[in-house]
Amino acid sequence: MASCHFICNQNLFYPSNNTFRKSHLPYFRPHGSSSTHSKLHFKRTPVVKAANKKIEIVYDTDERINKLADEVDKEAPLSRLTLFSPCKVNVFLRITRKREDGYHDLASLFHVISLGDVIKFSLSPSNKDRLSTNVPGVPLDERNLIIKALNLYRKKTGSKSYFWIHLDKKVPTGAGLGGGSSNAATALWAANQFNGCSATEKELQEWSSEIGSDIPFFFSHGAAYCTGRGEVVEDLSPPVSLDIPMVLIKPQEACSTAEVYKRFRLDQTSKVDPLTLLEKISTNGISQDVCINDLEPPAFEVLPSLKQLKQRVITAGRGQYDAVFMSGSGSTIVGIGSPDPPQFVYDEDDYRDVFLSEANFITREPNEWYKQPASANVSCQPSEVSGTFQ
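User: That's the sequence. What structure does it adopt?
Assistant: Structure tokens below.
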């Protein structure tokens, strides 16, 4: 398609019937998806406004028109933004020592997966953030990591922007999947977009450790070797194929991280060097012997039924999964290698209310936030997700 506009006396003239029009008011679409969308539409038939001097007709290609649309979008103020907030799994999790401050140092392969929440941000005219969600029991005040993240951003940058936020939650809480940490990272990213990207990704990553140990990881590109309390992040090229399917099975019961660490015994952990595990995964892929989680034994003490669930998945799978393990401090059991849960989960009343979701590994492009997958298979409804927001 070709289209034209008319330049008279070095000025751009638009016909009175306005053949140059827009379908929507444009908004700047930085990194992530905006809730509005704009395109420039042109009619082919020219209508010329009278002028005394020579009329110059300039024909534009579609490529030039699209470039013009992008330039207009970039100049428009950002007022709304919708972002995907994915969770993660710990492919392995080694606890290496107890620190003097009472925390534990860990070494873990974190990887973002395709299960996630969707968060909508809109600028608020008031001097207060307002958060809503589809899940009952989620705190909507300063206890929520989203609000903590927005307060942190304003503290660090002096920004005066406040927001209306709606959290469409799909990630179950108390699951060891880092859903709350991801929400906080996503909120920091969003606030920075509204503020003209005044902070670097590195600054956002460093600031985020002040409110949560897992949050800095989400500013990696999706796969990272994490040490310290989890806040020391070494970006990795994905050590595994992004096409590997997995199934997530989480019972209604949640594991309290505090209770898990209360029962943790450092002398009962694996002695395998975490770097050896990372090398094996990079060379041979994911297998049962490399998916070590030092928090499994204390978590199984807190929730004995979780140990039974893992054992049953391994037995019923009959080689269907390359590895079966618990993520983080629980209580999600992950089966790598197939998106399908074992049949007993459907057949037995004890597992009638479990959360089920298929997933795969994902990453993000530099200077962009994570993209929401085109489709996802989550068996529970949002109202079925319960527990305390982490």
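DSSP finds nine helices and 15 strands in the chain.
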